[in-house]
C-alpha cells in the first residue's frame, strides 16, 4: 500500500505531508526549498511507495486563479514529467495557511516558533492532506 503525499507549493518553500499506509492520518514530513523539491521527491519516492500526490491549488474566494496559481500549475506539469506513474491531483487550498497559523496558536507554541514560515508550510500541507483523506473516506 502506498502513501499519499501532499504538497503546499510556494515559490521559496514547499511544505510536505504524507499519509500513513492505510491513508487515515496525515503527518507533516518536512519543508524543503522549492528549487530542491524534485530531487527530494525522487529520493523519498525511491524509499517509500507513493500512490498519489496531491498539491494545493491557490484560488481566491470566488474560486478564481490567484497570482500563485500559474506557478502551481507549472509544478504539476513538472511532477507529471518526473513521476509519470504517480497520479497528481490539484486540491483547493483556500484557508489552509490560516488554519495552519490558527493550529499553531492553539497548540500553545510561542510567538517566535509560530513565525517559522517553514513550520506553517508543513502544517498547511498536513491540513490539506487530512482534509483530502476525510473527503475520500
TrEMBL record:
GO terms for molecular function: hydrolase activity, acting on ester bonds; nuclease activity. It is found in: Cytoplasm. Its EC number is 3.1.-.-. Gene3D superfamilies: YqgF/RNase H-like domain. Pfam families: RuvX. Keywords: Cytoplasm, Hydrolase, Nuclease, Ribosome biogenesis. It comes from the Bacteria. GO terms for biological process: rRNA 5'-end processing. One of its GO terms (cellular component) is cytosol. CDD domains: YqgF. Residues 2-100 form the YqgF/RNase H-like domain. HAMAP family: Nuclease_YqgF. NCBIfam families: RNAse_H_YqgF. Belongs to the YqgF HJR family. Could be a nuclease involved in processing of the 5'-end of pre-16S rRNA. This is Putative pre-16S rRNA nuclease. It comes from Thermoflavifilum thermophilum.
Amino acid at each position: 500500500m502506498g502513501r499519499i503525499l501532499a504538497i503546499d507549493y510556494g515559490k521559496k518553500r514547499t511544505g510536505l505531508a504524507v499519509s500513513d499506509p492505510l491513508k487515515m492520518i496525515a503527518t507533516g514530513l518536512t519543508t524543503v526549498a522549492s528549487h530542491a523539491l524534485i530531487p527530494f521527491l525522487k529520493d523519498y519516492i525511491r524509499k517509500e511507495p507513493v500512490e498519489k500526490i496531491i498539491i494545493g491549488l491557490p484560488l481566491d474566494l470566488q474560486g478564481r486563479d490567484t497570482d500563485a496559481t500559474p506557478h502551481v500549475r507549472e509544478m504539476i506539469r513538472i511532477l507529471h514529467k518526473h513521476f509519470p506513474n504517480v497520479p497528481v491531483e490539484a486540491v483547493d487550498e483556500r484557508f489552509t495557511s490560516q488554519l495552519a497559523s490558527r493550529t499553531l496558536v492553539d497548540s500553545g507554541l510561542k510567538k517566535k516558533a509560530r513565525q517559522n514560515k517553514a513550520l506553517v508550510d508543513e502544517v498547511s500541507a498536513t491540513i490539506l492532506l487530512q482534509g483530502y483523506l476525510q473527503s475520500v473516506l
